[in-house]
Each structure stands twice: as C-alpha cells, then as structure tokens.
Amino acid sequence: MTKNYILDWTFPNLGKYYRNVPPIRGSLNERLKDAKRLGLTRIEVPFDLVREENDEYLVLNKKIGDVITKDDFVLLYGDNSSKFEGYYVLHTDPELKRAHTLYWNLAEWRNRYLESIVEFSDFVGKPPSAIEFHPSKPKRSKKYMIYSILEAFDKFKGAGFSPYIMIENRTGMYISTVNDMINFYKEVSENLSPNELSKFGFCIDISQLYTQMRKDPVNDLKKLPKDYILGWHIHYRHKPPSNQDSIGWKSIAKLISETENAFYLPEVFKFNDVIKTIKYIENMLKH
Ligand SMILES: [Zn+2]
User: Fold this and answer.
1) C-alpha R_g of the chain
2) DSSP letter at 90?
3) E runs forming strands in 4-129
4) Quick one: pLDDT band at residue 273, thresholds 50, 70, 90?
5) How large is the average pLDDT for residues 196-205?
6) Neighbours of ion ligand 1 (CB under 5 A)
7) 15-286 placed in CATH 3.20.20.150
8) What is the pLDDT of residue 261?
9) How many CB atoms lie within 10 A of CB 77?
10) To the nearest whole percent, how much of the chain has pLDDT over 90?
11) How does strand 130-133 pair with strand 263-266?
12) Residues 45 and 84 sit within 8 Å (Cβ to Cβ)
C-alpha cells in the first residue's frame, strides 16, 4: 500500500475525533488527512453500537447499545458527499462499554448488524478493506460466533464485495488465547470455501493477549500457523511499546513481519504515539 514503511500500517482511530456536535465520531476525511501526514492511506473507522459518550444516543434518538443504521451515519460521520479517497478497516464494537452487547447468539440481531455494515459501505461509497469482529462472552459466542462469520461472508457476497474478515482476541472473552484461535479456525475452516477461508483470519492484539496469558505471548504465538493471521494490533495498554514492557518486542517485531499481507495497526489514542509505535517496531526490524 505504501512504500514509506516496511509494514503495511493502518492509521488508528484517535480520541481527538470525538465531539458533542455532529459529526460526533468525526469524519472519515478528517482521519484520512491525518493519516496522509504520516504517508498512510488506510484508516481505521470505529463502528461501535450507539454510545453514551457525547450524548450520542440522545442525538440519534436511540438507546445505548442499539445497532447504528443508515439514518445515523451523517450525524456520526458527517456528510460524505465529498468523496472518500482512501481505504478503511471497519472496527466493529468491542463490547467494552456499559450496555454494549454483541448478541451473536441471536440470528435477527446478527442480520441487522451485518446489514448495517452493508449500509455503511454504501454510505462511504466503497466497502472496507477488512472488518474486525469481536467475541462476546462464551454464552453469547460459543456455537454462535461461527454463524456470524458464515453469515458475514454470505451477506457481503450478496452485496457484491469481499472484505477480509478478522476476529480480534479479547481478554476474558470467547476468543482470548492462542488455543481459542486454533480451535475456532478449525470450526471455520470446516464451513468456509477455500476462497472464503483465504479472506478469514485473526487480528491479534498483543497487549490483550499478554493480559490474558499473564506472560509474554511470543512462544504461544509461534504455535499459530501464519495463514491464520490477518492483522496485528500493536500497543502496550494503548501506549507505544517500550523496552520497559514485559513483552519482548524484538521477537514480536520479527514474528509479525513474517505474516504476509497482514494489516498492522498502532492501536494508540494520540497522534504523536502513532508514529512512535511505527518507528519503535520498524527500527527493530532494521537492526
Ligand atoms: Zn485491539
């Protein structure tokens, strides 16, 4: 995508884009402008359920945790009539906030959520390069999360596009360890066509994995076949990684550089931390 860096980085979602007046979550073009300052052309776009923050639910006249739909997009992301010239990765709701629930166990909800992604692609004028989904608690994910993936492939195919589909690990949730990923991949591979399977994989959040495993996750990660991995979230508790962390970033840097075509995200919240994170990892790859 870009020749400026060794790895193919995506510009992250930052705190500065959120505000009290529409567009409440900030526009895509605003993000792209910042991304371009770093020589990047792909941005991450947050696609959370309706939030409490900034009175979003009041502006949208919805309940906290509702699925956002096409009537909401202009209020959240601005008028998109000035075309979006970049690329984007859609980061769907991570279920971090109170009253945000991913009902992967409910067919009707899954359909509504996937439909809203199709509507959003129409709104932007192009589909996302990749979509990140998050596991919920085991009771809402075990036996059901698989349907969300199969239905996502069907839904997007029906809409005429084929983004990469990733699942991000989350501490304490249905997919939180490397073993969880291996088991889930087996389930998925039995149900997807080879073509679809080539577009499915995990987005590995190293910091979340570290919190879950309570140790440097590098040895576990080495057990994970490379073709299971489509993305990496790089940060240490949403700060740039450093030599003081209990994670051996040097071996992590080498490991993550070995996954072909992966999406790399410096998952930090401040603009200056984006380039710090990128440089920290890339310097390790150079020396
Ligand atoms: Zn992450």
Assistant:
1) 18
2) E
3) 42-47, 87-92
4) very high
5) 97
6) 205, 233, 267
7) yes
8) 85
9) 27
10) 93
11) unpaired
12) no
| Residue 79 CB burial class (10 angstroms; 0-12, 13-18, ≥19) | exposed
d(C-alpha 42, C-alpha 262), whole Å: 13
Alpha carbon of 119 to ligand 1 centroid (Å)? 24
pLDDT at 32 over 70: yes
pLDDT in tens, 129-168: 999 999 999 999 999 999 999 999 999 999 999 999 999 9
Mean pLDDT of 265-283: 97
Q: Is 99 in a helix, a strand, or coil?
A: coil
Q: CB–CB of 38/278 below 8 Å?
A: yes
CA of 271 to the centre of ligand 1 (A): 16
**Distance of CA 168 from the midpoint of ligand 1 (Å):** 7
Q: DSSP letters of 132-171?
A: EE----HHHHTTTHHHHHHHHHHHHHHHT---EEEEE--T
> How many CB atoms lie under 10 A from the CB of residue 91?
26
Assess contact for 26 and 18: CB atoms under 8 A: yes
Buried b (16+ CB within 10 A) or exposed e, 124-146: beebbbbbbbbbbebebbeebbb
Q: Please name every residue paired with 92 in a beta bridge, in sequence order, or none if there are none.
A: 47
- Which residues fall within 8 angstroms of residue 120, CB to CB, at 6 or more apart? 47, 70, 73, 90
